[in-house]
Design brief:
alpha/beta, TIM Barrel
Length: 243
């Protein structure tokens, strides 16, 4: 069953702030959101940072694998100016920093486990262990990686998990049961009324991503979807009855 807010800010601030930064989380708060999604990756030294891409070059300048750097090295890099000069100098935050901010501001964290290749189990284990120190009900783990979710379950079975998928697979129920997951997170374009009804009838939560059109969001809510994840915090938050 879904016990979380029904609007979730994608990568913290969607398109309005540099993704996976504290600035993005502040943007979510400013727009009245009570839940954020962000990506968590393991890096050198056993630390965890907020990062989507496994390679430098898009949101952080440079080249090469992110996982070879330490959290301190990444924190000294510019993760903001790719979006605009206003954001220059915004650092890559550690997971602990982001979690502390979210707890202090009452934000649910949908922490997506985003492992570097070959580090799926290790990253899932590390993130789940870190989440054990957080208040109960403050975080929902998710991932496309079944291996990462299995490791998270083994490390911290009480931290809830959701399986991320693109198109809903035929064996979605078996996968959710095997992971003891509480929810399915699916791409909105692949969700039809029959799939929504089946997932809900089976007792699982259902979140749709990434929904940037208020009309589509209303349609999804009307079909039974529990939550939507959006990049357009400015369009969605004040235009939906569920906000």
């Amino acid at each position: 069953m879904w016990i979380y807010p029904d609007l979730i800010a994608h990568r913290g601030g969607g398109t309005l702030a540099p993704e996976n930064t504290l600035a993005a989380l502040r943007c979510a708060v400013a727009h009245g959101f009570r839940a954020v999604e962000f990506d968590v990756m393991g890096v050198a030294g056993g630390e965890l940072v907020l990062m989507h891409d496994t390679e430098l070059g898009r949101t952080v300048p440079g080249s090469g694998p992110v996982a070879r750097l330490t959290a301190a090295e990444l924190a000294a890099m510019d993760a903001g100016s790719w979006l605009g000069e206003h954001w220059r100098g915004e650092p890559v935050p550690g997971f602990g920093q982001a979690a502390a901010f979210c707890v202090a501001h009452g934000l649910l964290m949908n922490a997506e486990i985003k492992p570097a290749p070959g580090l799926e189990a290790d990253t899932g284990h590390r993130i789940a262990q870190a989440c054990q120190a957080l208040p109960a009900g403050s975080v929902l783990l998710s991932s496309f990686s079944v291996e990462a979710l299995q490791a998270a379950r083994a490390a911290a079975p009480d931290v809830p998990r959701a399986l991320l998928v693109g198109a809903v697979p035929d064996d979605w129920r078996a996968q959710l049961d095997a992971l003891a997951a509480v929810a399915l997170h699916a791409r909105e374009s692949g969700l039809g009324a029959a799939q929504v009804a089946a997932v809900k009838a089976a007792g699982f939560g259902l979140m749709a991503y990434t929904v940037n059109d208020p009309a589509r969001a209303r349609e999804l809510f009307a079909s039974g979807v529990d939550a939507v994840c959006t990049d357009r915090l400015d369009l969605i938050a004040d235009r939906l009855p569920n906000a």
